Amino acid sequence: MDKSFNYIISPELSEYKRFSPKLKIGILASGKGTNFQELINLSQKGEIDIEIKVLITNKEDAGCIKRAENAEIPYKIIRAKDFSKKESFEVEIINTLINYDVELVVMAGWMKIVSPFFINKFRNKIINIHPSLLPAYKGGSAIKDSILNGSKITGCSVHFVEEEVDSGSLIMQAALSIEEKDDLVSLSQKIQKLEHKILPHSITLAGFLIRNDFMESY
User: Fold this and answer.
1) Based on the structure, what is the number of domains in the chain?
2) Catalytic residue positions, numbered
3) Over the stretch 105-148, which tens digit does the pLDDT of each residue have?
């Protein structure tokens, strides 16, 4: 982990929770897929007990597709514009996840707001990573907003997905200072490194809760 900048993570964990059989996850991503790649790397090294069953993306030119191809992970492109209704679009995603027997849905740069219909199909089994210290700076411009508002601290959060955007129970957070020299690019790069740190741990924490039926009390 890059220590060229100071950060804190809570809860601070040194080991991943283990699973046998491996935790079956589905990835929803819209962009380059750097978090997706981190999960691929950890899985291939045997450092994390996950089986990435499928990647779903809503963009035919998303960088995550090539990463899936290189790792021989099944993927499906499901575009909202190909459906007359949002519900039909989400039904296609839901059916794909079900067909691949996914236990946990991981939104890693998924740039679409999901409906209560979708959430109820996977209640307490969807997590999302967001580039701010929630509940601060919700929405799609969180990093830019933190700079424009003169914040001194920011970070990233992994949370269970609920109906309200960027809400739901927090699983893990990482925080860092915003330096005077930081701009959108440099701060985004720092946050991305922290995302790579906390998302794998958050997946195993969420998987542990799911496998042990602890969700109702979480």
Assistant:
1) 1
2) 130
3) 999 999 999 999 999 999 999 999 999 999 999 988 999 999 99
